[in-house]
Amino acid sequence: MPTMAMSTQSLLMHSECCITIRSRPKMNWLINIIILQVLLGQVFSDLLCLSSDKCSCKHHVYKDEIQVECGLSTVEANLMESIIKVECNSDKIHWEQHFDQINIRDLHYANCLLSDTGIHQTISTLGINKVQNMKLVSMRLNGSLENGYLSNLESVKTLDITLTKLILTNGSFEGTPNLTKLYLRHNYIEEIPNGVFKSLNLLEVLDLGDNKITKINSDLFYGIPLKGLNLDSNYLTTLNLNVQSLKHLDVANNRITSITVGNLSKLVDISLNKNVLVTMPDQTFKNTSIESIRFSYGSFTALPHRFLTNLDRLLYVYLRSLNIEKIPENMIWNSSNIIELSLASNRLNELPVMFFRDAGKMKMLDLSKNQIETIDHELLRPLIKLETLDLSNNLIVQINNYGLKYLRNLKYLNLERNKIINFGREALNVPKLTTLKLAYNKISSLISNYEFSLHYLEEIETIDLSNNFINCIDPGWLNLIKLNNINLAGNNFTILRIQDIQYINEIVRTNLNNNPLEVIDLSDLEVFARAQSPPNNFWNNRRINLSSDKFICDCRNYEFARFLHNQMPKVVYKYLQIEQKLICNDGLRTEFSNVNMESLTCDWDIFEDVDKTNCTECECTYRPHDKSALMNCSNRNLTLAPEIIISSRNINYTELNLRNNSITKLPNYEKLNIKKLNIGYNNLNTINITQLPKNLVELHMEHNNLTMISETNLNNTLPNINILTMNSNSWICDCDAKNTINFIHKYSSKIFDLANITCYQSTTLLYTLTVEEVCLERSNTATIIIASMFLAVFSLVLGLLWILYKNYKTKIKIWLYSHNITWPISEESLDQDKKYDAFISFSHKDEELVAKHLVPGLEGGNSPFKLCLHYRDWVVGDWIPAQIARSVDESRRTIIVLSQHFLDSVWGRTEFRTAYSSALNERRSRIIVILYGEMSTKDLDPELKAYLSMNTYIKWGDYWFWEKLRYALPHRPEMKKKTRTKIIVPDKLNPTLLT
Which of 159, 178, 594, 958 has the fewest Cβ atoms within 10 Å of its own Cβ atom? Predict the structure, then answer.
């Protein structure tokens, strides 16, 4: 572009106008709005953007643009391009010189009224010269397009007029003689005058599409070097052109019933889409240079003989959706260079055997969406270079042996949506095939003549077999070494085994979605994964997609549940990855991934194991989570318990449920491997504990008629028991209950319902009784009479004293003890082997109370006590339950600091039960309870709740707290001469409330 100086004069606009300037010359605005300088051959280096009182200027640095706004009008300049856009919104615009004779490449007008003086006059006034490309959008003219509108535009080479109502005249384009491209789309043109283009001696491309043209004169373009003509979307019914230079013709979407192209000797491609052509003359294109024919969406039912014969330049033929029923055998004879042929979406049921006689160079053949039933290998024999074959959406039932044998270079084969049932053994002997599509057929097996029908596909990478009836994976898949994507969705797979998966060699993704999958057996997955060797240091990672709403959520899918819950070795997940959405067939649409693994059981008959006993009268299941057998005989009106219990060599134990029957007696289960036994809600009268299974962990015998435990030897009985229930029975509480009481005392910490076990027709709790209390020997009658008389007299003397003592017993004892008056019987002789006076059991959250108050208060003073504290006296690393038992056993008392924190502590409750059990065994009061803080009785264990209901306790903050606590501790002779120091502990808390 030459060096130019550009001075801008005042631009007077009486209405709205938008002008965009994109140029490289130097620009000066008359009123100093913009100063631009550009030297020849150099990219402009500086840009000044000034403002005046009438116009504003904005400099867009990143876009290299300047935008000047004068009122509602805008001028934009981009110095990196050479383009001006003018957008007018009013008919009253008075242009004055704006630029100093600049040359631009592109000029765009929009929404402007063309004046009679023409466009040239307007752009000359603005100072614009030598426009090369001009685009007029939504222009308005006063009448037809006369020669004055486009006069003196000799520099314009491309003219694009659109969305403008044009009436052409013979002189419309006399002012643009150098046009090479003319676009007149969507301008409502109805007629084309015969001489309208006569002055365009350089015109090569003409677009008259999307107008209302009904007729084109055959000599309209005579003498014009036209190469491309677009007449689409008009109202033409016939077409006969005489344009020797024309190469590209588009007459799509018209109403053409006949067309003549004999005078188009250089025609290369033609588009006839969406016309109403019924037929054409023989060898329609014989005098052309045709390379591509596109004709779709018509009713071209009768193809002429030799329609496309002897066209040695023809490469692409697309005859789609034309309702063609038959094609002539010689339609493409001697047109040996065709590389793509599409006859899709017609009504063909066969092709003549010799149709492809001369099509040896064809690479793509599309016969989809027809009614073809068979594939004749002789038909396809000449297609030795064919790479893509689409036979989808036909009626093919079977591909016979050698049907595709000559297609040695075929890479893509689409047979979707046919009625294929199977293949001949040699049918798919296509060694270079990389993509095979067989979706939506009726294939149930890929085995033909006892051989895998896909075994020739050495290069295959993608196979789509979705929506068929396949139900298994054949070992032949192992030979498809390059396969990386297989789609088996929507088939009939009900069982998938790891043995099946391993046949798919080096698979990247296998799609098994929407199959009626019931079982996924991964029992041997770990074995296969460990045997897998990682080639080239990369794992052979198989990825599978699964979905089904028929999934069986029982033990048959236990190994798959382990896989989903990451309970298999890491090597397994390097071998296989599964994305799944499996819904249980339980009617609740439960997702299998949310099912608890412990609930995955299955019928005993399904469980396969050696030496398995039969299950006849009960419901028997197997649970793989802990390898246990579950024998459920509940609610069966049994009067006799089964003597034969299910068992097997490879199960760990059996659970036996006899609940809610009418059983009166249990057989001897001593030698059976039963860990859980439920005999609740029966009619048992007695039970021999020594005849129960030795390994029993859980025993339920509530709601029976049991009166006693019959066996006395408890030394080696139920060593592993953890849970016992015994309530709602007819337990007797006389001397015959000795075994029962001993049993309850021994297993009190294991009895879940201890606080609910009472004597028959009484509210007396059995655990509160001792053998001595229920076995007092009856004295003879005389002794009883004498003793009664003595007691009567003695009672009269001590009556009042007893009443006083009864009402103030505790205060009297505390007062005596606080004044060093001890009882006649000392506990020193009974507990002389005890190491500590008291073991303090408390929650670590209450340690401040113990450390700052209780310990100093008890270990200080004139009568200090020796205390056992776990943070001070326990052996680090020793077993906690053993240390609890040892601390209780070595202490004369156990002080329980009972708070809400204590109730929340597992070890706190354990310490209480241990102390409580020890007290029951020794039949002595060993426990001192200090209530600390507020708590609710609903949070108490049954034993603790029962203990508090029958024993006194001390509240922290009580006025006599220390006197009561010392009184409850072991009494020892005090030194008379020592003065007792009273320790006062401030009461920081409110009185304890027990709700």
Answer: 594
